[in-house]
Amino acid sequence: MTETQILQDKRRKYVPRGVSNSNLNIAQHASGATVTDLDQNEWIDFAGAIGTLNVGHSHPKVTQSVNKQMDSFLHPGFNVMMYEGYINLAEKLCNITPGSFDKQAILFNSGAEAVENAVKVSRRFTKRQAVVTFKRGFHGRTNLTMGMTSKVKPYKFGFGPFSPEVYQAPYPYPYHKAEGQSEEDYTDQMIEEFKEFFVATVAPEMVACVVMEPIQGEGGFIIPPKRFVQFVDSFCKEHGIVFVADEIQTGFGRTGKLFAIEHFGVVPDLITVSKSLAAGLPLSGVVGRQDILNAAEPGELGGTFAGNPVACAAALTVIDVIKEEHLLEKAEHIGQTMENKLEELAGKHEFMGEIRRLGAMVAVEIVTNRTDKLPNKQKTAEITKYANENGLLLLSSGLNGNVIRFLAPLVITDEELTKGLSILEDAFEQKEKVGGFHGKSHSSI
């Protein structure tokens, strides 16, 4: 029995099956956009730990910063004794996020924690209870964030009851607008539906915050019309509602700007950040208006491990790397290259529906055909299975599990990108790789 097989057996025995695995091989080391497993097979990474590795695996500047911090101390606990990494990162986040108003930043561990605390401070500030999210949105796996999340299976089924006073508003899905309907008319329709929601479902005076992903991640990389996002922002301002941009998957250069909300000409009151903030180390934050974040009394916010100094060291370096290595411009290059390949493949495959992207946040919807546009979950699973058995880490998404999404590290080389797209092409055509390998890799345990 190989070491890989021994570890796979241990995983089945000791790790609950509720934790899914797209790929059952065992990582040994990783650099840039390539992961090498215990059997020395190389995998091009188009998943990026679900959007966590915009600066890639084991970036040398990040690992150097992490090692330096580890030599000093691991975690005195910010509530017990402060340290400069937390304070300097808070300052940097306040400086790089949109908005010229006075800001503050508070740090946590996970994206779900950041969202929960954005809700907490919004409720404290407004003295209201209701929370509005959007259909197809995803905000986490804690009890509150499960309630805020739209997709029932696998995220919510059997785990209720959920926190009360959470409501889901309509969110545009331009690919599925009525045939012949113009973009302008569709946007008007969605704005009217949004306004009607606050008549039929929850009154604005009850709402503490509206939490929106500028581009829906788990929902299928759905990009809303700019005018819709601007209307939501103006509606919130009119009614004293805190507008929260959930940038956990879209932030730190993924879309070609530091934050996706910048594409829409909107400045949110609060922004939640995590994932690529710390290059794979657990760290998250809420950044935004000082008057909102400062509303809570001492002791009402925080957490034992929140703002760990090792993760803060990584994050401070990540922000520098994004600028120094021109990763915002690189994101557009990666995204355009992917889009060009997908357009080429669409000429061969009727099951390829809409190709969507903003920067390097790229997706293709897999359908039965382009006329009916019905979700084709089976074909999506076949494509991701083939990729994960032939050297490409690849993920799906979407309410119906029929969207293939691409979250390659922004440091990916042209050689890695070309290799990954070649495997993707084979996956779409289901061709056997000549001279390749066929790991038994894709399955849920």
From TrEMBL:
<dbReference type="GO" id="GO:0047298">
    <property type="term" value="F:(S)-3-amino-2-methylpropionate transaminase activity"/>
</dbReference>
<dbReference type="InterPro" id="IPR015421">
    <property type="entry name" value="PyrdxlP-dep_Trfase_major"/>
</dbReference>
<dbReference type="GO" id="GO:0042802">
    <property type="term" value="F:identical protein binding"/>
</dbReference>
<comment type="pathway">
    <text>Amino-acid degradation; 4-aminobutanoate degradation.</text>
</comment>
<dbReference type="InterPro" id="IPR005814">
    <property type="entry name" value="Aminotrans_3"/>
</dbReference>
<dbReference type="InterPro" id="IPR049704">
    <property type="entry name" value="Aminotrans_3_PPA_site"/>
</dbReference>
<keyword id="KW-0808">Transferase</keyword>
<dbReference type="InterPro" id="IPR015424">
    <property type="entry name" value="PyrdxlP-dep_Trfase"/>
</dbReference>
<dbReference type="InterPro" id="IPR004632">
    <property type="entry name" value="4NH2But_aminotransferase_bac"/>
</dbReference>
<protein>
    <recommendedName>
        <fullName>(S)-3-amino-2-methylpropionate transaminase</fullName>
        <ecNumber>2.6.1.19</ecNumber>
        <ecNumber>2.6.1.22</ecNumber>
    </recommendedName>
</protein>
<dbReference type="Pfam" id="PF00202">
    <property type="entry name" value="Aminotran_3"/>
</dbReference>
<dbReference type="InterPro" id="IPR050103">
    <property type="entry name" value="Class-III_PLP-dep_AT"/>
</dbReference>
<dbReference type="GO" id="GO:0030170">
    <property type="term" value="F:pyridoxal phosphate binding"/>
</dbReference>
<keyword id="KW-0663">Pyridoxal phosphate</keyword>
<dbReference type="GO" id="GO:0034386">
    <property type="term" value="F:4-aminobutyrate:2-oxoglutarate transaminase activity"/>
</dbReference>
<dbReference type="GO" id="GO:0009448">
    <property type="term" value="P:gamma-aminobutyric acid metabolic process"/>
</dbReference>
<keyword id="KW-0032">Aminotransferase</keyword>
<comment type="similarity">
    <text>Belongs to the class-III pyridoxal-phosphate-dependent aminotransferase family.</text>
</comment>
<dbReference type="InterPro" id="IPR015422">
    <property type="entry name" value="PyrdxlP-dep_Trfase_small"/>
</dbReference>
